[in-house]
């Protein structure tokens, strides 16, 4: 078992609070020293009480799913003797109503675009199998109840 941790930090400062007109901007601090500006989504809480330049929790969840999938895909491709030159994912998440006044990420769509080089290029079936295996191994995708879709593409290096 592995323990993963971060510190989430927010301070009110001199802003009013009980009128709900306080900044949702905060920081995520990770054990390796990375600090990420975070905030509620402007879709949830209007600007100026949200910081649209910061990462919101929904975006962070999406990035975690995409990153986990990518890392497994790269590992599995390397094990298969394939050379991946580039991996870029234009991922999207849908926040939907799940009843009772609650919302959830109801769908995650990954759209990885890959570039391969080397003597051994994959075919569509092999790339799809690698995506399937990566999805099966991704701890993040296995941790959420949202549907996670992978709609990838690839190309040989020029």
UniProtKB/TrEMBL annotation:
<protein>
    <submittedName>
        <fullName>OsmC family peroxiredoxin</fullName>
    </submittedName>
</protein>
<dbReference type="Pfam" id="PF02566">
    <property type="entry name" value="OsmC"/>
</dbReference>
<dbReference type="InterPro" id="IPR003718">
    <property type="entry name" value="OsmC/Ohr_fam"/>
</dbReference>
<dbReference type="InterPro" id="IPR015946">
    <property type="entry name" value="KH_dom-like_a/b"/>
</dbReference>
<dbReference type="InterPro" id="IPR036102">
    <property type="entry name" value="OsmC/Ohrsf"/>
</dbReference>
<dbReference type="InterPro" id="IPR052707">
    <property type="entry name" value="OsmC_Ohr_Peroxiredoxin"/>
</dbReference>
């Amino acid at each position: 078992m592995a323990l993963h941790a971060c510190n989430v930090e927010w301070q009110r400062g001199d802003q009013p609070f009980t009128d709900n007109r306080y900044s949702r901007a905060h920081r995520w601090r990770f054990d390796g020293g990375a600090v990420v500006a975070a905030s509620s989504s402007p879709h949830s809480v209007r600007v100026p009480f949200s910081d649209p330049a910061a990462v919101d929790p929904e975006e962070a969840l999406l990035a975690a799913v995409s990153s986990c999938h990518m890392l497994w895909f790269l590992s599995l491709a390397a094990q298969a003797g394939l050379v991946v030159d580039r991996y870029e994912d234009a991922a999207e998440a849908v926040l939907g109503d799940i009843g009772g006044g609650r919302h959830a990420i109801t769908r995650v769509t990954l759209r990885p675009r890959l570039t391969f080089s080397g003597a051994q290029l994959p075919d569509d079936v092999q790339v799809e199998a690698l995506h399937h295996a990566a999805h099966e191994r991704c701890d993040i995708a296995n941790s959420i109840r949202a549907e996670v879709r992978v709609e990838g593409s690839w190309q040989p290096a020029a």
